[in-house]
Every structure is written in C-alpha cells, then in structure tokens.
Amino acid sequence: MDSHLAEGVTPDQVDRWVQSATILHSNGDGLDIAVKDGQIVGVRGREVDRVNHGRLGPKDLYGWQANHSPDRLTRPLVRRGGELVETDWDTAMDLVVRRSKELLDEQGPSALGFYTSGQLFLEEYYTLAAIGHGALGTNHMDGNTRLCTATAAAALKESFGCDGQPGSYTDIDHADVIALYGHNMAETQTVLWTRVLDRLAGPNPPELLCVDPRPTPVAREAAVHLAPLPGTNVALMNGILHEIIRRDMVDHDYVDAHTVGYEELAKRVADYTPEHVADICDVPAERIREAAELLGNAERLMSTVLQGFYQSHQATAASVQVNNIHLVRGMLGKPGAGILQMNGQPTAQNTRECGADGDLTGFRNWSNDKHIEDLAAVWNLDPMRIPHYAPPTHAMQIMRYAEKGSIQFLWISATNPAVSLPELERIRSLLAQQGLFLVVQDIFMSETAELADVVLPAATWGEKTGTFTNADRTVHLSDKAVDPPGEARSDLDIFLDYARRMDFRDKDGEPFPQWHDPESAFEAWKRASAGQLCDYTGLTHEKLRGSGGVQWPCNDENPDGTERLYADGRFWAEPDQCESYGRDLVTGAPLEPTEYKAMNPEGRAIIKAAEYLPPHEKPDGEYPFALITGRTLYHFHTRTKTGRSPQLQKAAPDVWVEISPDDAREAGVSEGDHVEVASPRGVIRARARINEIRSGVLFVPFHYGYWDTVTDEEAGRRDRAANETTVTDWDPVSKQPLFKTSAARLRLVGSGGGVPAPAPTTTASRPVGAGTTETTGGPGAASEERLGGGTR
Ligand SMILES: Nc1nc2c(c(=O)[nH]1)N[C@H]1C(S)=C(S)[C@@H](COP(=O)(O)OP(=O)(O)OC[C@H]3O[C@@H](n4cnc5c(=O)[nH]c(N)nc54)[C@H](O)[C@@H]3O)O[C@H]1N2
Ligand SMILES: Nc1nc2c(c(=O)[nH]1)N[C@H]1C(S)=C(S)[C@@H](COP(=O)(O)OP(=O)(O)OC[C@H]3O[C@@H](n4cnc5c(=O)[nH]c(N)nc54)[C@H](O)[C@@H]3O)O[C@H]1N2
Ligand SMILES: [Mo]
C-alpha cells in the first residue's frame, strides 16, 4: 500500500481516514484521506479497490497539499473600477443573477454560455446540465472535455453507437498484446502502467506496441515502437489494417455476425501498402509489417488510445481505426480483449454521461425527438424547453461566439482556458472584453480568474461529497473529509444557489432542479440513467461507501456492476437506441436518421473507414519543425495544484523544449541553452533538453502558465505557455482542438552555461546518453528512433 503523510505525522496520530479516489488523472485509484485536527495530512491507497489495489502515483501522493495552500480563494470577488475586490456571496450571486435575467429578457438564452470541466463530481455535472439545457434552455454548454476526451466519446459513438468503454482494466491482466496509441501511460496513468509492468515482469509477459513520436517510457518497453511524424496516424492505421486484411488475419465469423462496413474498409485500405505508408509517416515499412504481425496474431488484444491520437487533425478517424482492428479481429467482450478509448481527467466520463458538455444527459441522442421527450419527462419540464434545433455548441465555437459578442455571459467552472486553450493571445483578449460578463468558479486565482467580472471560490475534492467514474466505468465515492477554507462553497451548492435565486420551476411549479444535496442529486441522476447504457440504478452513495469501486451498468440485472460491455456481440447501436447517428469521418457531416437506419438497421458495430488527409499546418521552409505539446509525470495541467506541492514543483520547476541531437547540432544548441520556439501564432522561450525525440519534432510541456512567474523580470511576460503557439483548429468530427500538430521554428537565444534544462531525467524527457541500460536506450537505438521507431 502506498502512502504519504505530512512530515512529522505518524499513522497512529491520524484522527480519521476518509474514503475517496484520485483526481489528477483518469485512473480512478481508490485512496483514503488522512485527517488530523480538521486538516488533510496525507493519503494512503485503498487495498480493497479494484482499480489500484493500494497503489498510488506521485501526483496522488503529494498533490493534496495544494488543498490547504495559503492562497486558496476564500471569498467571492467582484470587479469594481477595474479591480477584483472581495465581497459576500449575496452581492456576488446577485450580480450573476441580475446579468442572467437581463440577458434572458433582452436576447434570450443564447446569450448565455457555460464552460465546465472534467474535474467536478457527477452530482455537479448533472445539476449544471439540468440548469443549462433544461431550466435556462441554452445550447451553449460544453466542458474542457472537448480538449480532452471528446474524441474518445466520438470514436465510441461512431463504432458502437454509444459512448462507454467496452473494456476493463483487468484486460491488462489477461492480454497477450497491449497496444498503446499516442498514450504515454507511464507518465499519465502511473498505477495502470505498474499493472502493465507487473505483467512484463511475470510469467507469459505480453508484448507491447507503442505508437508515439517520442521515446516515452512506454516506447522503451515496447516490442515494436512506431514513431510516426505527428499528424499521420490515419495513414499508419490504414497501413496496419491493410496488412491485417491482406494476410487475412480477420475473424470472418465475428465480422459477419456482428458488424457492418467491412467491405468498405477493405476497399479503402487497399492502397495503403507499408511502403506507401512508410513515406507518409517516415516509419520503416518493415516496422509497420511487424506491428501488423503483432496485432494480427494476438489472441487477446488490449488497446488504449489517448492524446497523440485525440489532439490531432483526424482524431476521430484515427481512433476509430483502433476500434476497427478489434472488430475485424473479433477482439471484444472477452478477458484480455478490451478497448479503452481513454479518458484523461478524473471525472470526464461523468461530464459526458450527465450531459454537461455537448452530449445529452444519459447518452441520449440529440437528433432523436423521443429521447428529448424522455429526458423532459425525467426533469418534469416541457420538451420544448430543451433546445435541440442544432447540436450543442462546442467549446471552440463558444469562444468564437464570445469573441463576436453573441455570447455575453460566460460561466467558467474548474478549468483554466487562459492557459489550456490554443492561441492564448486570442483567448486572453476575448475573455477580457468589456462586453463579456465573465464568471469564474475556481479554487485559486488562476490566469482565467484574473480576467473575470465575478470570481466564485469553490470547495474542492476532500471538502465535498460526490461520486465520479474513471476510464473503465468504475464508480467511486469521494466523501467530505474537511471543511473548505473561508467561505468557499462546493460547486454543487453554487449551482443550486444560482437555480434558487433564478427561481427556476418545473411543470408543477416546484423548484427546479428538484434536488438539494449530493445524495438527492445522485438519486435524481439514477432516474435519468435508468434503462440507458450508463445505468446507475443499482448504486447508492451508501453502497459505494466502503466498496472498492463498481463498474456501470449497475442495475437489477447486474447488481455488482459489469466488467465488459458487448460481451454478447450486441451493441447500443439500434436506430432507436443509439446516442448518435454518426458522422462522415473526413468531413464531420452528420448522417441523417434515415441514412443511419439504412446502413445499420439491426444495430451492429460499425466498421468505418477513412482516407488519410495531411495536416493543415505542415512543417515548411519557414517553420521546419512539427511541434507537439503534452505532459510530464509530475505536473497536472496548468499546475494550480501540483505547482503548489513542493516535491512535485521541484521535480519539474520550469518549461523546457525537447530537441533531437541532430536538430540541436544543426541549430548550434546544447543541453540547457535558452531557445525560442516560434509558430505563426506566437513565441515561447524555454531551455533545451536534448533527448531521443525523433528528428524534425519538438516537444513542449503545456503545464507552465503565468500565475507563478512573479519576479520583476518575468512579470507581465507572456512567453512561457505552450499554447501561445498552438493553432485554432479542430477535428471535424469530435471538434477536439489540435494541440499536437503545428509547425514551428527554433532559434538559439543564449547559452545555458552548461546547466541542464529544468526537465525530469527519468521520463520521456530523459537526456541522451542517460540510462543506457534499457532496451532501446543506447546510441544505436537512438538513431533507430530517428528513423521512426525500433524493435525490442
Ligand atoms: N502526469 C500527468 N498525468 C496526467 C495529466 C497530466 O497533466 N499530468 N493529465 C491527465 C489528462 S486530462 C489527460 S487527457 C491524459 C493525457 O495523457 P497522454 O495522452 O498520455 O499525454 P500527452 O502527453 O498529452 O500525449 C501522449 C503522447 O502523444 C504523443 N504524440 C504527439 N503527437 C502524436 C501523433 O501525431 N501521433 C502519435 N501516435 N502520438 C503523438 C506525445 O509524444 C505524447 O507522448 O493524462 C492524464 N494524466
Ligand atoms: N498545448 C496543450 N494544451 C492542452 C493539452 C495539451 O496536451 N497540450 N491538453 C488539453 C487537455 S487533455 C486538458 S484536460 C486541458 C486541461 O486544462 P484545464 O482544465 O484548463 O487545466 P487545469 O489546470 O486542470 O484547470 C482546472 C482548474 O480548475 C480548478 N479547480 C480544481 N479543482 C476544482 C474544484 O473542485 N472546483 C472548481 N470550481 N475549480 C477547481 C483549478 O484550480 C484550475 O484552475 O488542457 C488541454 N490543453
Ligand atoms: Mo485531458
């Protein structure tokens, strides 16, 4: 069991252990919070938990310290004479309510927008969805899940008719091949990775396939590592499918009984020979054959997909090809044969289920009037109150409407777009506009809160009760351990307070939402989920208390939850049932209900093919590098929590840029030198880390914004956040922005005096020459990386 307690505190001094789960990734590791004298003083892993069996990762062990950081927001703030000043809740909420009512009267609900998170609790999202889509009737509601797992949801809908992960983490225990696509699991889901490492060290170890342009710890363990040029995933996947089909490593019985679309796929990938694909991806053709061989011979294939696929221009098309490999090989619904279209944030699954993003509550279908009526009945509202004339506005479009002035009220909760959205100069200026009334609900004075008209101080994890669901559908309870600081209030209380002050009513004139606390919100949600794929009716807060997590669907038929979906080869895809009729994978154009019915009358799994298109912004003479951005082990996003945990902050104190040895030599750059990375949008300055990243590619972690750049020299400078450089563009199907494909140039600014870059040395950013003990680590392997991958 992993545990960390504050210095000087011993386990016997702990007053209480309070059940919860981890919140700085999507793994959902069960933990207990240690409480002493009304303060959180540590955590320990829960051995009874099905997900982690007591293990915890570095962020979980140290991240909780941020909760009692002295600079937590403790009172509401309002802008007066240009300055944010403290006030009381009545004053702040009155302002929010007054502006809402004015805009509702003058312009209607479309003047109001909501941008939320993947980090609140289920009860909070359900409440927000009911307020936004139900009571107010605005179409403008989305989550930062748009930046995170919109593609996971889209890929699942395209292939299986509905969101919901088919697989289970236990598939790792059974698989003989594990494929990780654009997923640096070793750094982003550390406990899940230890489960993989256990298998690798045990009897009958599985073989790994890693698809990632960087030498991640996953790549180092892989039997086959493909390092394609960023933005070429669809070509690569089509090449692998080409080989699998050419060599007839296809489960024709499964395909015939349970799928539609196989012929179309076979036709579409016919031209994608390994040689052709090798040219596009700059990966040796032989390596593509090896990957196909591995996948095609697997008896129990487990796949995970994450941001290397989701945050690029053909995100959904690429992710769907992973589903296709499973469908053509009949690798679903049995132990070891699982797909995880991964989540990133701890509660992103709930944002989607509850419909606090572009989805409709309970995985209902926006284009199916019966589903709207059904939800309206659950809410006891008139169906016409739920806007469904068009698909809900996605986050990037919400920002566009705010920029243009049609959205004049924007309520942002638990996300920090002034650091996490692309093209920050634009985001800062549109959020700061005079005409936009900006409400920011956070636990710290984030870069976004700095721009707000009203700042609402929230209580967070450990200070409130609620449930959340991880990437393999495991539901956990997180109980309140301590009181929030000052006057901070839970997000649920804030949303409900708004609803009461707005005096929303249901059809019977009763206050809407009809619930008032976490437990009644959960009970209400159960009614909304009843009979849907994400059925929670068999769960209660009490049942989860003490448990090791339960996987939905959990209902009368499955009282202990459900390990794998679609075990019987039946999908949630019947025309009357499905969450979406699907889209064209290349253009994003939605299918009409009649088209869907004609294509898939029996509700089978859908094998959908896609042509490869090159990225819109490719390296050229002026911007010769492909710039990718992402994560490091020790930090979470914009570091509002991990940057306030001394151990984590020390492990990765400042931004860096990863450069290959060849590229560094050509630019005259040595380890630790100061360099400038410029894209057509903006410039950042960072220190150079020379590592085994493939040539032609630069990597910058996106964790570093401006809240802790406090020295005189740094104050006011805006050249540290990766998103100064990224592009305003998105996948046409999922609308997820492209954080992993832009073009950039590199320039030496000054010597670092031989001091290494402030980057960790044990992660994907490990410097060249370090740690040659691992399988692909030596200089020979490094040159193979530069050719686009290696074998073990
Ligand atoms: N330590 C840590 N863990 C986290 C988080 C965190 O901030 N820090 N955040 C959580 C969240 S919200 C998320 S969404 C997940 C994200 O978890 P991951 O997706 O694992 O993390 P990223 O670093 O964003 O991207 C993964 C990999 O994609 C690769 N990549 C880039 N471009 C391409 C490409 O074109 N093709 C391919 N195949 N690969 C490419 C990158 O080299 C990178 O190693 O992590 C979760 N866990
Ligand atoms: N360049 C680049 N950009 C990216 C990515 C990338 O890979 N590259 N990844 C994208 C992805 S996958 C993600 S998920 C996003 C993440 O981007 P963000 O969501 O903007 O990042 P966070 O730092 O997690 O912001 C969460 C905010 O919520 C606050 N908060 C924490 N807990 C609570 C709570 O309980 N209540 C309230 N009200 N507030 C709380 C935190 O203090 C913080 O300000 O970034 C995206 N942006
Ligand atoms: Mo994410």
What does this structure look like?
Belongs to the prokaryotic molybdopterin-containing oxidoreductase family. NasA/NapA/NarB subfamily. Residues 750-792 are annotated as: Disordered. The chain is of the alpha/beta class and 792 residues long. It folds into four domains: 3-68, Phosphorylase Kinase, domain 1 (2-Layer Sandwich), CATH 3.30.200; 77-147 and 347-469 and 474-532, Rossmann fold, CATH 3.40.50; 150-344 and 589-606, Dimethylsulfoxide Reductase, domain 2, CATH 3.40.228; 625-750, Barwin-like endoglucanases. Strand 10, helix 8 (217-221) and strand 11 form a beta-alpha-beta unit. 62% of the residues are buried. The structure holds ligand MGD (2 copies) and molybdenum atom (MO).
Secondary structure topology:
Elements: E1 3-5, E2 16-21, E3 30-36, E4 39-45, H1 58-63, E5 77-80, E6 83-86, H2 89-107, E7 112-116, H3 122-136, E8 141-143, H4 150-160, H5 171-174, E9 177-181, H6 185-188, H7 190-201, E10 207-211, H8 217-221, E11 224-226, H9 233-246, H10 252-258, E12 259-260, H11 262-268, H12 274-281, H13 285-297, E13 301-305, H14 307-310, H15 315-328, E14 339-341, H16 348-354, H17 369-379, H18 395-404, E15 409-413, H19 417-420, H20 424-431, E16 437-442, E17 454-457, E18 466-469, E19 474-478, H21 491-502, H22 518-529, H23 541-544, E20 550-551, H24 593-599, E21 605-606, E22 625-630, H25 646-651, E23 656-659, H26 661-667, E24 674-678, E25 683-690, E26 697-701, E27 742-750, H27 779-786, E28 789-791
Bound molecules: ligand MGD (2 copies) and molybdenum atom.
